[in-house]
Write a sequence for this structure.
């Protein structure tokens, strides 16, 4: 049978089967921020059959290679917010942490001595940070791609937009943009930084919180974007 198949390949030009190319054999992709080829992160301990984790030799960015490039999409009404019960059960502890962070920001920025800043939170979830801003007398808005989270955050009054940081917001609008545990989920953080810069007023501040990359699971299952 193999002899017949060889004759058919010679006569009709049937393609030879190509060996599968492992992701580990492919050329390293470049850092989106710096343009430099990435290095293996963590001495290959986080490598996976379908992807590997790279780090930039110049800036702190790390990313999956190949990048799982899935643009954010809004979840429809009626779909349960994936961690709603967990967040609600810990809402007081979360709000206390937000109070500490907000006090630190106001002290460092000095904005409260001149005027209360106008704030945008990207990925505002159930709105706990916005509630803390309200306690401080700060005019704060939010956006999130989860419709159930937006509905809950807007239960008292409308302050959260269903969507993300995009052209919905005008240039030079906010004194500060906050994003807690969001940046690691974005396939293209450079676009996020550009949008944040656009909506911030001159001298405005971008405040990010992200998890420590040293706590990644060895199989990389909790890391799919860039951070």
């Amino acid at each position: 049978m193999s002899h017949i198949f060889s004759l058919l390949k010679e006569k009709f030009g049937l393609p030879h089967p190509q060996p599968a190319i492992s992701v580990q054999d492919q050329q390293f992709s470049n850092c989106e921020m710096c343009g430099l080829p990435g290095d293996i992160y963590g001495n290959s301990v986080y490598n996976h059959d379908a992807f590997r984790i790279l780090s930039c030799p110049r800036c702190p960015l790390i990313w999956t290679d190949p990048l799982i490039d899935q643009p954010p999409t809004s979840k429809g009404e009626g779909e349960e917010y994936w961690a709603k019960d967990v967040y609600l059960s810990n809402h007081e502890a979360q709000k206390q942490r937000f109070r500490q962070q907000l006090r630190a920001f106001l002290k460092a920025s000095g904005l409260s001595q001149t005027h209360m800043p106008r704030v945008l939170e990207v990925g505002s979830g159930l709105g706990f940070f916005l509630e803390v801003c309200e306690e401080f007398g700060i005019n704060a808005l939010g956006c999130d791609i989860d419709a159930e989270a937006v509905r809950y955050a807007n239960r008292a009054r409308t302050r959260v937009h269903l969507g993300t940081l995009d052209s919905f917001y005008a240039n030079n609008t906010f004194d500060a943009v906050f994003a807690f545990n969001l940046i690691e989920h974005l396939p293209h953080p450079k676009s996020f930084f550009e949008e944040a810069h656009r909506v911030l007023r001159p001298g405005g501040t971008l405040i990010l919180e992200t998890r420590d990359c040293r706590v990644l699971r060895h199989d990389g299952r909790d890391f799919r974007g860039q951070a």
